[in-house]
Amino acid sequence: MKKWLIMILMIFILGGCYDYNELNELAIIVGIGIDYTDNEYVITYEVLSNNENKESANTKSYTVTKKHENLAQALDLTADALPKKAYFSHADLLILSENVAKEKMNTIIDYLLRNKNIRETLNVVITKNPEEFLKSTSKNLAVVSNSVNDAITADKTSGSYASKKEFINLVREILSFGQDAAVSVVDIGEDKVNFTALALFHDYQMVAKLPKEEAAMYNLLRNEINNVILTYPFGNETVTNSVYRSNIKIKVSAQKIKVTGSVEATILANDANIDIKNVENITEMEKTFGYLLDQKIKDFISDLQKAKADILYFGQKYYINSRNKDATLWQQADIDVDINFNISKKGIIFEVQNAN
To answer: pLDDT (tens digit, 9 = 90+) per residue, 264-307?
Structure first.
């Protein structure tokens, strides 16, 4: 009996100590920035801080940057420069420079897929200078990487200008037939994270950037929206709508891209002072806004055709329907859009929300 008690006691004592690292002995990396300039990879890690070596108690992270002409060595050099052992399990953000997105995606993807330390589910965004971006800590941006991820989540209820893209999904889109990738472009201004554009990829290369409003069209056409803000002229003034639901289908044939479906919207601002309790006025608004939304979608798809960036998977859709493996046919196809625009009603009372 005593032997069993001793064995059980040893399990508890030794089990708690085996292969265990105290958190204060680790450099917890939350964001990874990769740039490529002057023929060298520039790696920046954002690391959680205990503020011991920081002038401001508002910031909760610091950065370490190193460079080398070889990607693997650049990453290792940056980890070696940390005051403690690098810990990557909390890294949730990968920030790529535009130079990397245009020139070095093949190398980045190949290495990171084989790197066991880096999670495949971390979010990916693009900015001009990842090092400077990650250094932009402040009272409101105590940990920049966390602020970016929070902004991506918050954007789903404030405008749908962000495209959430995990690294593994970016890789899948780049490697799959009839698919291309789209990634949010970000910067920091007025002490907050801003989504400024939508970066379009073809194969391993960023080929174009579209304004952030186009990101809303991208999310809408994928039925991944919570709130798309659309402001349209109505008479001499404007009316602003919030599209909160979309049910859109895309069919691709050899000659045509056909977009059909419906959207549900609420009125946010009625600067045109339309009598929205009048059913006829609402019906007229739905027709007008439906037509204008159709034009926006046509313009968006036309921009994709010009950039040759198949972020809506037209090539894949055509292959599924025809079994013809032509990934370029969609680029010359006519575009036909017919979306039913429905304004939310509550009985005969129409409510206008305050736009924030």
So the answer is: 999 988 998 888 888 899 999 999 999 999 999 999 999 999 99
The residue among 211, 207, 206, 217 whose CA lies nearest residue 195 is 211
Residues 6+ away with beta carbon under 8 Å from 11: none
Reply yes or no on whether the pLDDT at 28 is more than 70: yes
Identity at 181, one-letter amino acid code: A
Question: Given this model, what pLDDT does residue 5 score?
Answer: 44
Strand order across the beta sheet in which 334-343 lies: 228-234, 237-252, 256-270, 334-343
Q: Any idea what DSSP says for residue 139?
A: S
Closest CA to 243 of 266, 218, 275: 266
Adjacent-strand bridge partners of 166: 123
Q: Give the model confidence (pLDDT) of 153-165 as tens digits.
A: 888 767 789 999 9
Burial of 168 (0-12, 13-18, 19+ CB in 10 A): middle
Q: pLDDT class for 22, splitting at 50, 70, 90?
A: low
CB 183 within 8 A of CB 215: no
**Which residues are registered as beta bridge partners of 342?**
264
Helices (H), the chain: 2-15, 71-80, 98-103, 105-114, 130-134, 144-155, 167-175, 212-221, 279-307, 314-322
The one-letter amino acid at 130: P
pTM for this entry: 0.86
* Distance (Å, whole) CA 94 – CA 45: 10
- Could you count the other beta carbons within 10 Å of the beta carbon of residue 13? 9
Integer Cα distance of 201 and 221 in angstroms: 18
Task: Tell me how long the chain is.
Answer: 356
SS3 310: coil
Annotate 207-225 with b (16+ C-beta within 10 A) or e (fewer): bbbbebbbbbbbbbbbeeb
Phi-psi region of 112 (alpha: psi -120 to 50; beta: other; left: phi over 0): alpha
